[in-house]
Amino acid sequence: MEKLSINGTWFREIQHGRRVLLRGINLGGDTKVPFPNGGTQYPDDFQNHTDVSFIGRPFPLEEAEEHFLRLKNWGFNCLRLLTTWEAVEHFGPKQYDIAYLDYFTSIVELAGKFGFYVFIDFHQDVWSRMTGGDGAPAWTLEKIGIDISKISESDSALVMQSKYDYSRTGIRQEENYPTMSWSQNYRYPANAIMWTLFYAGRDFAPKFNIDGQNVQDFLQSHYLGCIQEIAHRIKDFDHVLGFDSLNEPSRGWIGSKMNDRGLNPDQKSANLPGLAWSAIDGLFTSNGYTIELPFMELSILKAGFTRKEDRVINPNKISLWQNPDLGDPFQIEGAWELKDDMPFVLNNDYFCKIGEHEVNFDNDYMIPFIHKVSDAITNIRQDWIIFAEKEALGIGESHSFKKPLPQNTVNASHWYDLPTLVFKRFNYPITVDPFAKKLVFGRKGIEEMYKSQMNKIKSASSEHNVPTLLGEFGIPFDLQEGKAYKKWKNGKRDAKIWKQHNLALDMMYNSIDALQIHSTLWNYTAGNRNDLMIGDQWNQEDLSIFSSDQIDDSLFNKRLNPFGYGSGGRAIEGFSRPYPRFTAGEPLLYKFDSKKKEFIFEYRCSSDDLGIPTEVFIPKIHYPNGIKVIVESGYLDYSIQENNIKLISHEIGFCKIRVIPD
Predict the structure, then answer these.
(1) CA 396 – CA 316 distance, rounded (Å)
(2) Is 191 part of any domain?
(3) What is the 3-state secondary structure (H, E, C) of 265-284?
(4) Which domain does 307 fall in, by range?
(5) Could you tell me which residue, 170 or 513, shows the higher pLDDT?
(6) Where residue 559 falls among pLDDT bands split at 50, 70, 90?
(7) What's the pLDDT at 397?
(8) pLDDT, mean over the chain
(9) Structurally, how many domains does the chain consist of?
(10) Which of 574, 596, 623 is the last residue of a domain?
């Protein structure tokens, strides 16, 4: 595979100069948890956190050919390949899992042999498995002084393994662990404490040292060390584009006033679902005290978040800390104090100001950290790209990077249709734009909303003249309590059972195509099951385009499609679409009408592009009987090879083709 570089908003081949559109997939959802039985469908108290292995995530090596061929046949050419800090360094500080590193290197090498560009994502969600997500090893919490056995018991995080009744299988338990509640953990104290120390320990906990380093330097140096352990092993693979900075990080309490719950003055609405925590709320309860907090929910009718009720937090008065008498790092620094078992804020601006300087999370902490990650990888291979991400809870807000980014950067922000994600319903033909706080009607209106939201990300990229790649977007496949799974189980095998999923994905990809941005869909999980408690094996999420429960090789021609083209796929018609993989020239427009099965592609050739092939992917699932290529402009030769059209231009200027069923 030819090495790619960044040229303005496009990726380009270094040798031939063709513009490359990355149409990728995240691999994969269950990489967040140990193999084979580390998923959240199993009870776990995390006491064996050093004795785990991630070898086999995303899949065992002996299964790699099957999965890579399936993804290749569906048209993907890029992998956002997941790993975690815990997978590399779960034994303890600087105790690396060499066997896992060897396994992961083999996965990366195989991906290149099957024609995939790869960038590595050190994934995390709400810090770690012990705090209700994935990512960091348990010892990071223990080094801070947190008792991991008390995290859930003290209401310092929502942890599925602690909340679920595992004697009841195959169903959701909304009363114990509500759908999509894991994301609320960013605002719970265990997470907020860790993220504040990770990004700004030198400023907000200057006295807090671990092993001779400030807590910030200690945590960041170990994270960067794990990146470099993998980087050294894969540095000679030209198909590896670079590394993600860090998946969906959080600012913790940086920039927040100690008593700010994020509520409007009328105390009836907020911009996030779940409990409305302030910093002092979290610090007080983490020290073993009980409080009541407002609980917010997303309302379609009111087009925003509203206060539903108040909830009692930490009723059993459990301390989060190994040494409850010592207090938390910020109490020790003098940000607040206890008097007669009541919290008193000593400096309401503690997390907002350093002296007279008003802190800005992006400028003071996030972007400098992105530079650190870039330095760590480019010291090993100079041409590697950094795929920069902003914080998780910034969705719908400003996507701009206010300070200069590293030289070789891609804006890899994430985008989701929040109502679909939260409610596991595709609200068509009427939905809500929670950021504009208005109702949206019909296909045209929803696509325009999608484009408007995505264009905010693209506009942020334009400020720095870098490519935009949606690092994540996607839909839950267990819509309407798994309605499609029930139909499949009852013997229905046609595409109609995925009607809502296909429609949602089609509208999302139409918006992506209209904006000409790159993307990696979330996600492909090899261990996914049609079980509402299992899904992607993590916190009841179920966004995988594949499930072993969808495998039915009798539906497909195995001679034409090894391992059963489409076998195991969900809503294949929605994500397997025509697109220009390589363009010898400047792409001007590409769009696909999924009803008419018509694909239009327009591009412009210069003298340097003549004689160099442009390649367009054409999925068989939309054209089972073949295609007809109509050249509407330009002097073009073309050939059709399997699922690929090769176009060669013989004159400078505008070119246009139309592809229809034969």
Answers:
(1) 37
(2) no
(3) CCCCCECCCEECCCHHHHHH
(4) 274-350
(5) 513
(6) very low
(7) 54
(8) 93
(9) 3
(10) 574
